[in-house]
């Protein structure tokens, strides 16, 4: 279709009659340009009276085929040579400030006519020049007919420039589809095809009827880059210009020559590389660069598991607040202090020198905080009342023992009496002595029964309710196939000689959204791809994450009358999901190495005098099994 339209246009041009001179008019007056940056780079000129010349820049809206001449009235008109006066499609003239009128002429064009000007020394002015288009066709080739010219260009994106010669071009056309078409009168023309990443093509082409299509294949002067880093995700700058983050795909082009690559990533030192592009169009795989870490990883350790561990920088700013076992990444250019803190305790601390942990993973141990005690002495009427401090059974009255300083809730309980609660404030090194009188419950007549004596070593009061009691404790699981741990809790109602119930939940508390987007993430069956964790073709070796959770419930059944061993059996629902990390940094869901569905429990519980218990068993989820171990208390 494009070629048909060109042919029709060509037929129309055969009807164009010969014309006279082309019209050329001034489209604007001389306008002052304050502080023109371009003109400032050229040297000053003066007229014969040593007056500094003004500069007039003439900007045609279409190219001229001849030399533009400035005519003046008034002072002298020094003008540079033709080559220097014409710059980037503009015509520059150095004019004496005494000039009062100017006019422009050009061979083959009408003159612009005189216009008045008022010029200042050393100032720059611009003048717009309106020139009719298709100057060369009308002027030189009218009546001889137009010839269609076709070029195919590879690559498809290029700038095609053509004209009488390199210095006298008619037009420049940007193409994006690889095709250039135009009409020209018969004759010889200069053609140039440009693309930033290819060597320019130049040729003098004879245009005549019946000429064949011209095929232009540009010679490359670039290379494509494939860039990786370890770790990935580093920003790459090529000669100071950002290319994105690694991995950088091979569609990044660089011109022939030497270039500098710079890698930047948070918590790593800046790295640099020099590459040399030979310009043959090939892909250069830049050698893998390993970034040096500017951080270290510490694992916090403290014997007091309830203590809060606080990390501060040299300015005293809190960088982290956590517990025993937490991992923290720290900048190795700073020094830090780790403090163990707990209410009613004296804090302990240890220093960390940043340079000693750079690029390492170290355990930092801090001494547990030291408790601060006072003493509490309690007596009651009646005596032998049970004493609970902050909800924990602590003995009976008369009571006397060390208690941590601070505010505490105390409760006294006695059979047949209303429990009494009160608050005490314990101070360091002081003894707080209190006597409390309990009130009898309404309708409870006093009796002469002998008070039951609680053995001194007993830390739990004798139950007066149902045989069944509550059990609760921690539950720890281990999945041998993935070598992963999970943690949770087991709760229930059971006793060593009674049938009971339980519920149990465990998880490794991995949050999928922190590394895997369900809407954009990929998944596949690894057995079909014949890959594994150690195969570097698709995945980073050993970079896999598992998400595991299971919730079960069932019954607890005693096995023997003479031994406190029970079996627990239950069912529930669970999931074991496996993700592998690709070289690009994204995680992929592995369907054949993942399970979710019905789970089953089977295990044993050993009771210790209705005070504590220990359980061990196995939990399965669609063929994947994990070992379960737990301990807890009976209430």
Please give a structural write-up:
This protein has 635 residues and is mainly beta. Helices cover 4% and strands 54% of the residues. The strands form 14 sheets. Strands 45-46-47-49-50-52-53-54 form an 8-stranded antiparallel beta barrel. Strands 1, 2, 3, 5, 6 and 9 form a 6-stranded mixed β-sheet that branches. Strands 12-11-14-15-17 form a 5-stranded antiparallel β-sheet, with no helix packed on it. A hairpin with a 2-residue loop joins strand 20 and strand 21. It is elongated and about 130 Å long.
Could you give a short description of this structure?
With 635 residues, the chain is mostly beta strands.
List keywords for this structure.
6-stranded mixed sheet, 54% strand, elongated, 4% helix, 635 residues, 8-stranded antiparallel barrel
List the helices and strands and how they pair.
Layout: H1 2-13, E1 24-26, E2 31-32, E3 54-60, E4 69-73, H2 82-85, E5 86-87, E6 90-95, E7 101-105, E8 115-116, E9 124-131, H3 135-141, E10 146-154, E11 158-163, E12 169-175, E13 179-185, E14 187-195, E15 198-207, E16 214-217, E17 219-220, E18 222-227, E19 229-230, E20 235-238, E21 241-245, E22 248-255, E23 257-264, E24 271-277, E25 283-285, E26 289-290, E27 295-301, E28 308-312, E29 318-322, E30 327-331, E31 336-341, E32 345-346, E33 348-352, E34 361-365, E35 370-371, E36 373-381, E37 386-389, E38 392-396, E39 399-404, E40 406-413, E41 417-418, E42 420-426, E43 431-437, E44 439-440, E45 469-479, E46 484-495, E47 498-507, E48 522-524, H4 526-529, E49 539-558, E50 565-582, E51 587-590, E52 595-608, E53 612-621, E54 624-634
Parallel strand pairs: 3-9, 10-16, 18-25, 19-26, 27-34, 36-43, 48-51
Antiparallel strand pairs: 1-9, 2-9, 3-6, 4-7, 5-6, 7-8, 10-13, 11-12, 11-14, 14-15, 15-17, 18-22, 20-21, 20-23, 23-24, 27-30, 28-29, 28-31, 31-33, 32-35, 36-39, 37-38, 37-40, 40-42, 41-44, 45-46, 45-54, 46-47, 47-49, 49-50, 50-51, 50-52, 52-53, 53-54
């Amino acid at each position: 279709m494009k070629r048909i339209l060109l042919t029709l246009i060509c037929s129309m041009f055969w009807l164009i009659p010969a014309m006279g001179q082309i019209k050329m008019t001034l489209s604007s007056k001389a306008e002052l340009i304050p502080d023109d940056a371009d003109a400032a780079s050229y040297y000053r000129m003066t007229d014969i009276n040593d007056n500094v010349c003004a500069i007039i820049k003439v900007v045609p809206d279409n190219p001229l085929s001849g030399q533009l001449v400035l005519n003046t009235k008034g002072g002298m008109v020094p003008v540079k040579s033709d080559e220097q006066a014409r710059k980037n499609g503009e015509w520059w003239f150095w004019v004496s400030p005494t000039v009062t009128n100017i006019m422009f002429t050009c061979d083959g064009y009408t003159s612009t006519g005189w216009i008045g000007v008022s010029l200042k020394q050393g100032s720059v002015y611009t003048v717009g020049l309106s020139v009719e288009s298709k100057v060369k066709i009308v002027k030189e080739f009218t009546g001889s007919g137009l010839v269609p010219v076709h070029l195919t260009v590879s690559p498809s994106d290029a700038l095609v420039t053509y004209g009488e010669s390199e210095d006298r071009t008619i037009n420049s056309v940007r193409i994006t589809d690889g095709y250039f078409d135009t009409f020209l009168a018969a004759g010889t023309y200069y053609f140039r095809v440009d693309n930033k990443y290819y060597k320019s093509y130049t040729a003098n082409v004879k245009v005549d009827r019946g000429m064949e299509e011209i095929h232009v294949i540009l010679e490359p002067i670039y290379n494509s880059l494939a860039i990786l880093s370890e770790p990935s995700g580093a920003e790459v700058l090529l000669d100071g210009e950002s290319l994105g983050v690694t991995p950088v795909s091979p569609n990044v082009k660089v011109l022939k020559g030497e270039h500098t690559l710079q890698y930047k990533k948070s918590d790593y030192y800046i790295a640099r590389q020099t590459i040399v592009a030979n310009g043959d169009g090939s892909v250069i795989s830049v050698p893998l660069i390993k970034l040096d870490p500017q951080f270290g990883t510490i694992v916090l350790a403290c014997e007091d598991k309830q203590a809060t561990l606080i990390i501060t920088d040299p300015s005293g700013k809190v960088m982290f607040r956590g517990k025993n076992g937490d991992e923290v990444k720290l900048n190795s250019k700073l020094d830090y202090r780790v403090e163990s803190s707990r209410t009613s305790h004296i804090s302990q601390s240890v220093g960390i020198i940043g340079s000693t942990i750079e690029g390492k993973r170290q355990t930092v141990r801090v001494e547990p905080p030291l408790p601060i005690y006072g003493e509490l002495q309690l007596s009651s009427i009646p005596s032998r009342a049970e004493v609970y401090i902050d909800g924990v059974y602590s003995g009976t009255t008369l009571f006397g023992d060390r208690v941590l300083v601070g505010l505490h809730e105390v409760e006294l309980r006695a059979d047949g009496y209303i429990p009494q609660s009160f608050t005490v404030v314990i101070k360091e090194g002081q003894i707080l002595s209190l006597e409390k009188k309990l009130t009898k419950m309404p309708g409870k007549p006093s009796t002469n029964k002998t008070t039951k004596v609680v053995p001194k070593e007993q830390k739990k009061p004798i139950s007066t309710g149902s045989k069944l009691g509550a059990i609760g404790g921690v539950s720890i699981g281990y999945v041998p196939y993935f070598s992963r741990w999970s943690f949770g809790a087991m709760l229930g109602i059971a006793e060593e000689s009674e049938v009971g119930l339980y519920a149990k939940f465990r998880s490794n508390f991995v949050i999928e959204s922190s590394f895997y987007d369900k809407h954009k993430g990929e998944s596949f069956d690894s057995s079909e791809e014949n890959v594994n964790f150690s195969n570097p073709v698709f995945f980073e070796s050993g970079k896999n994450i598992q998400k595991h959770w299971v919730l079960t419930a069932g019954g607890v059944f005693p096995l023997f009358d003479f031994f406190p061993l029970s079996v627990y059996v239950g069912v529930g629902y669970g999931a074991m999901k496996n993700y592998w990390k690709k070289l690009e940094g994204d995680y992929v869901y592995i369907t054949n190495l993942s399970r979710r569905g019905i789970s089953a429990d089977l295990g044993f519980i050993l009771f210790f005098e209705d005070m504590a218990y220990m359980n061990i068993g196995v939990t399965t989820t669609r063929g994947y099994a994990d070992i379960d171990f737990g301990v807890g208390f009976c209430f």
